[in-house]
Design a protein that fits this description.
mainly alpha; two-stranded antiparallel ribbon
Length: 321
Amino acid sequence: MIQAPQATKRSKLQRWLQRSLPFWLLLPTVVILLTVQVYPALYTVWLSFHDREPQGWVYVGAQNFERLFGMGLFAESVGHTLVFLVGFASLTLVLGFVIALLLNRRLRFSGLYVTLLFIPWIIADIIVGIVFRLLVVPDYGLFSGILQNPALFPPDGLSVLTAVPPRPWFGDFPFPPAPAMIYLILASTWRALPFVTLLLLAAMQTVPNEVLESSRIDGANSRQVIRYVMIPLMLPTIVVALFSLTLSGMNGVGMVFSLTGGGPGSSTEVLSYMLYSIGWRQLEFGRAGALALLIGLVNWGLIAGTLRVTRAHGEPSGEEQ
């Protein structure tokens, strides 16, 4: 009679441990997420509505956003960001698709090619920016002799990192971009190309060969097979790759920092680099928080769009149901 209550308590404790085991297993991950993601996000929201005064932090409401929108550099940085994202994402997708097509043909040493393709992906943005900067530095850069040749780039050659941007075609919108922006797009494309290529190659290899063969039997040539058969079947992966490139281009600052430093002038100052400049150079953490909040909202919109598109392509149609 004395041991029965102890056995009952022991069984209740065992049942409670079994039920709560998933919670204890997830607790370290939850704590890390709260520390490195949730708390910084909430603190950024708090910063965006406060400003540092001699007496301490003061609530200023929407003044940080008003000051941010009143900066001429903000509108210019939005234009630079749009030019960079369009050039970077489109060039990376096109080159990635072409390389994936070549690798999908089962060439000799294709495994070696895929391994070599990974090299840019494992190098940090800062290092890539430094290397590409050294390639075009005047006098001793690897390509400086070609770029500074007046016969190829009249009248006095081309200095990529210091050339003045051309006159805009559409009001104040920064297009055509400065040579430094074009070079930044090329360097960023080289850095991101392995990931996109392998993503598209994996999607390409999931396309059934029977579908491709039947389309060829029906008279479609190679270009028609790619356009009307392969690309529609790969569309969800292409959309994911596009949104991934947009997210990385929107938030990446290391390449701009080490390659152009936002220059010449402000011709490559995208929003992410402007955030760095306001926060860590000018120490305007309130405005930096407001800009970070705006960039975060854009990121959330891109993520929501990606999930919606992939979910729409993943759900079966009414006829299939």
